[in-house]
Amino acid sequence: MIVRGQRFDLTNQRQIIDFEIAKPELIPEGALQLMTIPVDAQEHAISDWSLGDKIQGVSFLKKSSSLRLVIDTASISASIAALIVVIHTDKPGMIRVKLNRAGNIFVRVNNALFDLSEYTEGRALVAFSIYRRGSIWRFRAIGESFNTGLEALYSRYIIDRTDTP
């Protein structure tokens, strides 16, 4: 079991991380989203990235009761110090609901689980980050909830919202 604040090395160049969701059917169709924010060493969104941009080396897959994040660490630009991974229900034009409506949410990485259930009171949740330390990529369990949804994240990571998807 992974606990909040825990850090460990990622040994695979191609890292697969699953979000397991107990009751995704209780969230309006299409509202449950994953977002990855590429940040610099000061934890500000990198300057040449905008909301909705794809990040080389990062891909998402959606299954019935899970979301999968696949990260090829060798393909990530050297300008990116870390990837902040967010799960949220703040899709424009959708009913805004809290993440806890979906029941228990777990992150599975390297066959270990990080239980996010106690952090799902808001509409957005910084689940974890993957960051560079020298040539090694590391995982950090965060579990930080935002009741106001993505707005607080945009301010925190200094993200330009003019192109909000």
From TrEMBL:
It comes from the Bacteria. This is TerD domain-containing protein. Pfam families: TerD. Residues 68-157 form the TerD domain. InterPro entries: TerD.
